Amino acid sequence: MEVDGAAASVPLLKWKSDFSRTFQYYLDKSTPHATGRWLGTAGMAAIYFLRVYFIQGFYIITYGLGIYLLNLLIGFLSPLADPELEGTDGPALPTKGSDEFKPFVRRLPEFKFWYSITKAFCVAFVMTFFSVFDVPVFWPILLFYWIVLFFLTMKRQIVHMIKYKYVPFSMGKQVLSDLSVGGFWHWAGMTTVSM
């Protein structure tokens, strides 16, 4: 009897291993395609919200999803080494103009941020098929409470950004302007000699 159970689990383990490997392969292939990934997640979010709208229920699931997304957003906007949370001996955010420039490193990288959001929408969507999760609530109160929580949390985060002088977003590659011959020498701290 034990041998039959073990023999039956071997194909299941092989299938699980193959599925996991294939899933990871496609996940790795999607890494450089940020726009496509986010558009797919936006489509999944739209499908979820349409389902909740037409069913007129599952507001508590949506509220929990909103709190989880807010938590992910804070991780995405926060630096890896937060000076308020830990006294770092290593690299830290510059607090004065004379401090050395250190690039912003997120506590939650963009890919993990996207992946967590996508998983959250998928789990919430599946939960809408089970009536046990459709707890009757007065949704305007939940919405109002979430909006207040969002603004208070974002205010705290923005104050933190201003205090430690960091911006969690960069719009493309930094380019030096005016790199003409004279501009380069001036930028490098040297003067040109005219003959």
Automatic annotation (TrEMBL):
Its main location: membrane. It is found in: Membrane. The keyword Zinc does not apply. Signal peptide: none annotated. The chain crosses the membrane at residues 48-70, 113-131, 137-154. It is a multi-pass membrane protein. Keywords: Membrane, Transmembrane, Transmembrane helix. One of its GO terms (biological process) is protein retention in ER lumen. GO terms for cellular component: endoplasmic reticulum; Golgi membrane. It comes from the Eukaryota. Pfam families: Rer1. Involved in the retrieval of endoplasmic reticulum membrane proteins from the early Golgi compartment. Belongs to the RER1 family. This is Protein RER1. It comes from Zingiber officinale.
